[in-house]
Fold:
Amino acid sequence: MSINHTHTAETTIVSSKEQIITGNSQTVFGGASDISAFQQVLLTANGTVTAMLEAHFSEQIQIIKLSEERTKKELDLPNIKLNKEEEIIRRKVLLQGKISGRNYIYADSFLLINNLEERFRDQLLKTDKPIGKLWSEYKVETFKEIIYLGQHPANELSDYFCIEPEENLFSRTYSVYSQGKINMIITEKFPERCSW
Structure:
């Protein structure tokens, strides 16, 4: 899979400085010899990240909302057909351990409002439940397609993970479909160097 994206300072979907990826995670991160089995699972699995984190770390996961804005925006993505200007909610959150207070994942999501079921959308906006838990609660059938895998310096996200700005984060972006319609584009990032 070879993907070309344009990047502005506003989006975190793909940066021109990031490596564009071809192949599976072992090929992609072959140079990162310390990648753990759990990190590979997080990068490539199709299940909900919240459930994987809770199972692996034996603690409940909560979200910490960093920002949430409702806007209209043109999204230019490969192999994804959207209206010229979609009404979206852009949400940035941390997936954090409820007991440990440790930040495991930073997520930047574009939620296509018109393609979300109303009750699901209301819960997403009015509560602090992770998206994965809402999918389970509302029994939403989803199909996820990974459109980008990469790694890049943490920069301004470094404080969330108590690492240096020049240390790398792994990153993946995927689209989420339900009932044949795309309704989310999510980018998740977590540290390359960790004790997982």
